[in-house]
Amino acid sequence: MTELRRVPQQAASDGNDASPALMLDVRHLPSFGFGHRSLMWWSTVCLMLIEGTVFAIAAMTYFYLRSLTVHWPLNAAPPALLWGSANTAVLMLSMWPNQLAKRAADRQDRVRSRLWLSVCLLFAVVFLVLRGFEFAALNVTWYANAYGSVVWLLLGLHTTHLITDTVDTAVLAVLLFTGPFEGKRFVDVSENALYWYFVVLSWLPIYAVLYVAPRL
């Protein structure tokens, strides 16, 4: 608990003692916090709001282009369902170790944090491999027409966020295993887990746009 201590001020230059002043002793306060008490949490939330807006604009572009033509998709078959559906399953399963990593970080358990963070990293790598097959099964190139461009844009945007979070997860895992290690790394792991939820949940409407909408 923060203590109030009475600390005498230094004597003034004229030799007269000044009255004692109250000063806060903050030596024992924690240097980091979780959730809304962390600046990292607010940064992550703002980042998700910005990136969510970008995804929404890209989806609106898709439906705007669709409204301009009678036949959709343009000169192409809808994307194959296999790889996109497999990736969706992988992402949904990854929420389990992600939650365990966040819980361990909130408890400041280094051993379990690095264990479940490593499992999350494995899921992310598997997803990236499957994403390569997913791009190959879109049945359209990015330069073929407006449909191809917006499809590649949506999938590319999500892939960019996935790669970013995968790199971040890998760096955090290395720090948890080797150091240099500071207590605030637990906050980093917790907020990384929060961002992964955004990556997973933002994919669901994108999946619907790319794979369900062309078949309606």
Number of DSSP-assigned strands: 2
Helix content: 55-70%
CATH architecture grouping: Up-down Bundle
Average pLDDT number:
86
Can you offer a commentary on this structure?
The protein has 216 residues and is mainly alpha-helical. The chain has a single domain (35-215), classed as Cytochrome c oxidase, subunit III, four-helix bundle (Four Helix Bundle (Hemerythrin (Met), subunit A), Up-down Bundle), CATH 1.20.120. It is built from five helices and two strands. A two-stranded antiparallel ribbon has the order 1-2. Helix 3 runs antiparallel to helix 4 (146-178). The radius of gyration is 25 Å and the shape is elongated. The N and C termini lie far apart (61 Å).
SSE inventory with pairings:
Blueprint (H helix, E strand, L loop, with lengths): L2 E5 L13 E5 L13 H29 L13 H26 L3 H27 L9 H33 L6 H28 L4
Antiparallel strand pairs: 1-2
Helix pairs in contact: 1-4, 1-5, 2-3, 2-5, 3-4, 4-5
Which key phrases capture this entry?
216 residues, mainly alpha, Four Helix Bundle (Hemerythrin (Met), subunit A), 2 strands
Concise synopsis of the structure shown:
This protein is mainly alpha-helical and 216 residues long. Helices cover 66% and strands 5% of the residues. The protein is built from five helices and two strands; from the N terminus they run E-E-H-H-H-H-H.
